[in-house]
Amino acid sequence: MSDSPYTSPEARPDTAVKLKGGDEQTVPFDIATMPPGIPYIIGNEAAERFSFYGMKAILTVFMTKYLLSATGEADYMTAEEAKASVHLFSAAVYFTPFLGAIISDWLWGKYRTILYLSIVYCAGHGVLAMMEFPQESVAPRYILFLGLLLIALGGGGIKPCVSAHVGDQFGARNQHLLSRVYSWFYFSINFGSMVSTMLTPILLVRYGPGWAFGVPGILMALATFVFWLGRNRFVHVPPGGNRFFSETFGQDGIRAMLNLTPLLLLVAMFWSLFDQTASAWVIQADEMNRHFGPINLGFLTIDFTLLPSQLQAVNPLFVMLLIPIFSYLVYPRMGKVFEVTPLRKIGIGMFVTVLAFSISAWIQSQIDEGQAPHIMWQVLAYLVLTCAEIMVSITMLEFFYTQAPKRMKSLIMAFCLLSVFVGNLFTAVVNLVIQNSDGSSKLPGATYYWFFTGIMLVTAVVYVIWSQFYRGSTYIQGDDTADDTAVQ
Q1: Which pTM does this prediction carry?
Q2: Whole-number mean pLDDT of the chain?
Q3: For the domain 249-292+305-488, what is the CATH superfamily, name and number?
Q4: What residue ranges are annotated as transmembrane (predicted)?
Q5: For residues 418 and 264, is the Cβ–Cβ distance under 8 A?
């Protein structure tokens, strides 16, 4: 007797993918091929990431060069105000995943959580697009903050649900395809990010904030529509109801979170520096030589100038290029010298982050002296920082997943994202504190970058000491026992 949930050939996805009668499929399809809902998830993710990173790419420039008052006059933010606002927004985006994970596993399930919060997400983009048409009764700054709040609720809330929803689609017969799908999933994130980061700044310059914020909103609406189209092709894992709390917050779950909290706080400093690519590095790029050309290729002459916010596009490009290099070259070479454990990868990545921000500090020192370094110096800083990202960010996700009890994988992944929240909150607070009443800064010029470089170096040293004493339990799906080990 088969364990398949299908009672007739017509109900099997091999012959009819779409379920009849609007019933929801609650267990994985009994197939050896790709689950029928995967194309809808990948398409949704590419469009959603386009909308988010396109909007985020222009935030700092909009706040410092385009923001108006209710009467239509310039109401630009200072550099410190803009940086604080961007990082408070980023912090909110990475706090709400905790709320999304709880709502999903407790009340709505992943599909409905993603769908409902995507509508909130779309509303946030719509609010931002309205800033080009100032309302005398409401200051555009308040409209900006309302739009960002809605995007933080929607975008952050769906974050832990989407990746878990991917895994829900696979059963025993097609589980071997899961890694391939996650590779495409991660590729779609970086592809959408790269394209939107190049395109949206052009929309801002040529057509204004309405189009620059509106096009990402249209892409988010498209992402929501594509996801809705897959409703009858998804596996819908039911929410756990009140049982969710007793199963999740048991002894093993509490112990896992306590074990991982120091790691979360230490890696937060990495995110404090990394996410300044959307704030401090954009402001720095505006003072650099961004011109390329003329470059004669025989059949084509290249002559162009990059916009300050477009530099962020090199990060997803480097991610796509460097992941296979690290997987097949860097890590195997390291393995010949020492055992390459997750905690060691993270530690090395933290020291690499110090090097990346040292480059940006040197660039700023040249600017302070009245020079205009070429933007390729910042591209070099991006290259080094992306190497750190691969060692820290991807490894963090992997490590937190293995350290989480089976019934709370989604929640622990959301817990992992709190590291980004803490890091961005720290950056925002620093930028608020260093503002003087006369508009000057307590950390002017290169001093600002050296401050964060020094904090990162101290954190990396503390991390190395802490990692020697870490004791955790490794939980593997399909294995009911936990492996209590020290992971160096």
Answers
A1: 0.81
A2: 86
A3: MFS general substrate transporter like domains (1.20.1250.20)
A4: 50-68, 88-107, 114-131, 143-162, 183-204, 210-229, 256-274, 313-331, 343-363, 375-399, 411-434, 446-466
A5: yes
